[in-house]
Amino acid sequence: MAASGVTDIEIPIGGRVHMGLLGIPPSAKAIVVFAHGSGSSRHSRRNNYVAELIRARGIATLLFDLLTEDEDRVYENRFDIPRLTNRLIEVTHWLSTQEALANMAIGYFGASTGAAAALKAAAELGDRIGAVVSRGGRPDMAGETDLARVQAPTLLIVGGYDDVVIELNQSAYAALQCTRQLEIVPGATHLFEEPGTLDQAASLACDWFSQHLGTA
Q1: Could you tell me if residue 1 is inside a domain?
Q2: Which of 190, 204, 209, 211 lies 20 to 30 angstroms, CA to CA, from 74?
Q3: Count of domains for the chain
Q4: Whole-model pTM?
């Protein structure tokens, strides 16, 4: 059952069907597509919470499963960044075929390995993507070459207790050549499960999308 104001949809891609959750606030002119981390799905509690706050800013959201159910049963597929990237690109092209979505500015929100897929897709699609946010992500897995190609303003959000991932995000930040920002949320571990930390991360993401998708 989808949340209030959110519709269950099926997205046909290359002979496969990917399930999604689409929410479109009144008069929305931008949409944020979520790229989930390894082992997660469109039902991710944390990402749905962030999506709800993004929609409260008047921006549409799409949470979809980058892998089909059969593909997700193969553990290695969850870390197949090229495959995840291609799915995200295919879904982005699908948006342009939907009358209600075709003219919207597009942002990506990536978590964990989904952040790498979001940045690689943004590198491929150039100015088609208006903004990228990584939350607790592995942007380093996108590779320095693609990171340097990203044009979309990019925000990297990391938990203050996530020491190794902080270093990996700092390396990715150095490789990016676009408008970029690195925010460290104090007291947060990798999944932002500590009280108030997910709210801080969500607020940073909402501000970033509001700022950059409004002018995309």
Answers
A1: no
A2: 190
A3: 1
A4: 0.93
